[in-house]
Amino acid sequence: MTIPAIVLAGSRPGPDPLLTGSGASTKALLPVAGKPMLAHVVTALRASPHVGRITILAQNSAELAAEPMLAGIDGLQFEDSGQGISSSLAAALPDSDAPMLVTTADNVLLTPSMIAEFVAGAEDSDVAVAMVEKAVLLARYPESRRTWLKFRGGWWSGANLFRLSGRRVLPLLDFWGRIERDRKKGLKIIAAFGPWLLLGTLLRLFTIRQGIARAGLRFGLKAKVVAMSEPEACIDADKPADIELIERIFAARRQGAIGAPL
Fold first, then answer.
1. Would you identify the CATH topology of the domain 3-13+23-242?
2. Given a cut of 50, is residue 231 above it in pLDDT?
């Protein structure tokens, strides 16, 4: 069986410093390693035997659909989104509890092997989140700077891969819509789930798996963390330094050195 995928390719409010002087009108079309960010992500999804239909969500989806490097890709569709991530996802969910894979247009280092690892680890969950432990990333890329969530047994960074079980997750998406502006502020996000989870995190009483499971229970959901083994899984394109690192990784992949797509 395959799972449909959604790629969040919209623009956030305000200017994006990555676009300054680039000639690109939106981040999803910013060239990285010779082609738009979104094209890298779609190529990886389409190459995965686990992924079925792919939906691109953006405020101006027609602009993305006109990108020549996306032309002719089977099972690809474009839909206009709202202004917020949570509301856009809620509108795109199926009328059932069928699972969906969600990623972002700046997840340019995504590979079929990452998708396979995540899909296997996320099985039987209502909500699953891909994450990379700090030691895994820094062992290969000590120069990389991420936002870390600190739990007992490790520090973790998100990897922009999610599994959502259809309409079951609507209450969670509604909640996320109220706090997504703080998405880079780990403790504020944790505090929003209640004082017990915040206290447990501050005192390192929980592992990240226990913390995510507790957070899911608030909404009656089985929530899981999928620990990704490839450090590149959490390197997305947020800052100029990220782009420089990503370009080096793609160059190494072309030479067959690291993280080549499988």
1. Spore Coat Polysaccharide Biosynthesis Protein SpsA; Chain A (3.90.550)
2. yes
